[in-house]
Specification:
By secondary structure, this protein is α/β, with parallel strands linked by helices. It contains 21 helices and 6 strands. It has a 6-stranded mixed beta sheet with strand order 1-2-4-3-5-6, with helices on both faces. The chain is globular.
Length: about 450
């Protein structure tokens, strides 16, 4: 099992930070934009009144990429000039009040950014995954032109996004291919459209086609942050494909990841650079290169330690905590990350994620009692639908202690409570995490999944 499926799946059971509930979320004073929180209708109304497009940041409490963008890109002073040119909306996809939004604008990648036309709510632009500041600025610039010109020259891409949002990924993949044929090589939308095309191919099960698109198009992208964005999706598809071709492509992607790691510091965000280390480790693991994997993981851990030392505050430092768990897991040294996670818990006392991640580290280190205690601290802080992932992690600790019946009861009750909460989609990620954990528990007990 690859790291993305093993350690990555484990980390999904924990989360990223959830900021205190508030109707408006100001960024640091110098940054400018002020986000409305979970008020979709209010944002559209403000857009109509001010004749401005609506920029929507969709995020989730467990999303490390979302947290990293909030601490870096969305806090940049460079956004000050855009503050009054958009209405800014943040939608927590785990919030009960966001379910109506998700019915119209389904999200399967975090973060996802939308730009909406305020009169009808139509999607003018969609961007999947974390991006750098230049990439985000490109989204703003192109979206503003689209809004002012009434979609002039963007119809094909808008249609592709609409098909993807409606779940028609087969048709969306064809539409993205056609839209890309109309975009100039230097068009700022190209990298994002390639990511969307690849994701739609993957959603139809066409992982081989997804990796081929990435392999073919990567050399055509001039910016290292754009290549990194497509590389991450392409590697995921290559890892899902067990052929000689896929193994060769993984090697190509690993070489590209290592070349990109040599890019100047200003050309990649810390999250993007850390993700490149993750990709390189996955490639080593997939080939069974244990010595190379350990060497790569050691370099990753050194990078993460450097970032912890030079981060601009607790939020930015904690944004890479889940990667610290991952890197030390690969090294077989979970205790190495514990002091940094303890620091995050001290500095972010209202955040359930540091104690949840500490529980992961303790469990990997065989310190089960400490894992359970840390998980209880996380459960005391986690609220609402987001509590589901923490409960799933708590159940894993109970399973490790031999308390299968207790773990099964915990998961069953959590799912029942979710079923009784109005508006939560059946395919909501929180529900999937609980269901997958329960299925694994029952399978380990020899029981048939229900």
């Amino acid at each position: 099992m690859t790291m993305r499926l093993a350690v990555g799946a484990l980390l999904l059971l924990w989360g990223c930070a959830t900021p205190p509930a508030a109707p408006r979320r100001p960024l640091p004073a110098q940054a400018g934009p002020v986000f409305l929180e979970n008020d979709w209708e209010g944002a559209l109304r403000a857009g109509r009144e001010g004749r401005r497009p609506v920029l929507v940041e969709t995020w989730a409490p467990w999303c490390q990429s979302c947290r990293s963008m909030r601490a870096t890109v969305l806090a940049s002073p460079a956004l000050a000039e855009w503050a009054d040119r958009f209405v800014w909306l943040a939608v927590d996809t785990d919030a009960d009040t966001s379910m109506a939004f998700l019915q119209r604008y389904p999200v399967d990648t975090w973060p996802t950014f939308f730009v909406l036309e305020p009169e009808t709510g139509a999607v003018l632009a969609r961007s999947l995954g974390a991006v750098s500041l230049p990439q985000f600025m490109g989204l703003l610039e192109q979206s503003e032109r689209t809004f002012q010109q009434g979609r002039l020259g963007t119809e094909a891409l808008v249609r592709a996004d609409a098909l993807a949002l409606s779940g028609q990924h087969g048709e969306a993949a064809v539409a993205y291919q056609r839209a890309l044929a109309q975009l100039a090589p230097e068009d700022a939308r190209r990298a994002g459209a390639l990511v969307s095309w690849s994701k739609s191919l993957a959603a139809t099960g066409a992982s081989a086609d997804c990796m081929r698109v990435a392999a073919r198009e990567l050399p055509k992208l001039s910016r290292v942050d754009d290549r990194t964005r497509l590389l991450y999706v392409g590697m995921g598809c290559a890892l899902d494909t067990n052929t000689d071709e896929a193994r060769a492509v993984r090697g190509q992607f690993a070489e590209e990841a290592n070349r990109a790691l040599g890019a100047p510091e200003t050309e990649l965000t810390p999250l993007q650079r850390s993700s490149l280390y993750e990709l390189a480790c996955e490639a080593r693991e997939a080939t069974g290169d244990d010595a190379g994997l350990r060497e790569q993981a050691r370099s990753w851990w050194a990078f993460l330690q450097f970032q912890a030392t030079h981060a601009n505050g607790a939020e930015e430092r904690a944004a890479l905590d889940s990667h610290r768990v991952m890197a030390t897991a690969l090294l077989g040294e979970p205790d190495a990350a514990i002091p940094l996670l303890e620091r995050s818990e001290r500095e972010l006392p209202g955040d359930y994620n540091p104690p949840a991640r500490l529980a992961t580290l303790y469990l990997m280190a065989g310190r089960k009692d400490e894992a359970l205690t840390a998980s209880k601290r996380a459960l005391a802080l986690a609220k609402g639908v987001s509590r589901g992932t923490v409960l799933a992690g708590h159940a894993r600790i109970l399973m490790a202690q031999g308390e299968q019946a207790h773990a099964e009861r915990l998961l069953t009750e959590a799912l029942r409570e979710m079923d009784q909460t109005p508006g939560i989609p059946q395919d909501h990620l929180q529900r999937k995490v609980l269901e997958r954990t329960l299925a694994r528990l029952r399978a380990s007990n020899g029981a048939s999944p229900k």
